[in-house]
Amino acid sequence: MLLNEEIKLDYSDVLIRPKRSTMSSRGEVYLGRTHKFLWSKKEWTGIPIMSANMDTVGTPAMHKILAKHGMITCPAKHHLKKNINKFMSGKKNICWFGGIDDISRLSKISSGFIGLDVANGYTIRFVDAVKKLRNKCPKATIVAGNVVTADMTQELILAGADIVKVGIGPGSVCTTRIKTGIGYPQLSAVIECADAAHGLNAHIIADGGCVSSGDIVKAFAGGADFVMIGGMLAGHDECEGELVNGEMKFYGMASKSAMNKHNNNNHYRGAEGKTVSVPYKGKVDDTIKDILSGIRSACTYVGANRLKTLSKCTTFVRVNNTHNTIYGNE
Ligand code: 5GP
Question: pLDDT digits over 275-303, tens only?
Fold first, then answer.
């Protein structure tokens, strides 16, 4: 047994210190990024926020709105089997995820990004699957995850991933940390994996754990090239699911709800996700504008006139958690 006593941080453990700035308005901030990918050599320009590939949020209606903002949609896995053509608008702003058994399906997709997405990206079988997908699709921009440490980030990149998805346990409907005790504080995971990936000219996605635009800001400030959100997009008109008494259902992809829906039950697999009811939030376009306004505002507070320079302009300060809980939430 080993014990690592270094302090590791979640988004709620820090704030960003304001700095002198020459900017006079948040309208001056450019939120677009252009990323050139290590293996595919392709370039992508847009606002680097992604919807999670979860049942209720990874919908064609969500894709229509996110693509308008230059953001990426990751369709829920079941669409990969039968509904690829429903996601037509803004084809470059789409990332199709599948599991290890979906390699041949994924390799037939010719636009946007493709990715292999498993709860535990630490197995040899997963690394072999990434290599296999890269061999089959030398020109595709490939995402692989999830992991939370620098060593495994580099291993997946060397196996052929352009982008590594980072996060084990931080998700709003995830119960992995409770069920298994496994996880890693998300801000530290992002900082450490981004550093490892950038050293190899590759990229990372900070996946899960953002409950506010401030958390998205902290993920970018920590070095994330993309930020993936699920719960923040739940409860909108563009989501799948019924509106009952002003609330909509949202569930983890490893929850009982998802297992029952996709007939994915077996005797050794227990749920590592839960089902919650989220308040109805109206049009996702309004939520997106609110998120973007929060990021712009953060950039003006630290003197970053582009999202690209936010990380360089950031000094995190550690905060007392109690204080953050009382005053940090709207
Ligand atoms: P959120 O933005 O809601 O905090 O997190 C979304 C992320 O949670 C997803 O992109 C995915 O990585 C993760 N996730 C989704 N469903 C489950 C689940 O059932 N179990 C676990 N452990 N993680 C999940």
Answer: 999 999 999 999 999 999 999 999 999 99
**Low pLDDT (below 50) residues in the chain:** 326-330
Q: Residues with catalytic annotation?
A: 174
Counting atoms of ligand 1 from 1, which one is nearest the CA of 232?
2
SS3 156: helix
Taking the CA of residue 208 as reference, the ligand 1 atom at the shortest distance is 5
160 ligand 1 Cβ < 6 A:
no
Global confidence as pTM: 0.96
Q: What percent of the chain has pLDDT over 90?
A: 84
The candidate with the shortest Cα–Cα distance to 93, out of 116, 59, 63, 52, is: 63
208 lines ligand 1 (CB under 6 A): yes
How far is the centre of ligand 1, averaged over its atoms, from the C-alpha of 53 (Å)? 9
Could you give the C-alpha distances from 159 to 130, 156, 192, 211, 280, in angstroms and in order? 6, 5, 19, 32, 42
Contacting residues for 161 by C-beta, under 8 A, at least 6 apart: 39, 130, 134, 142, 143, 144, 202
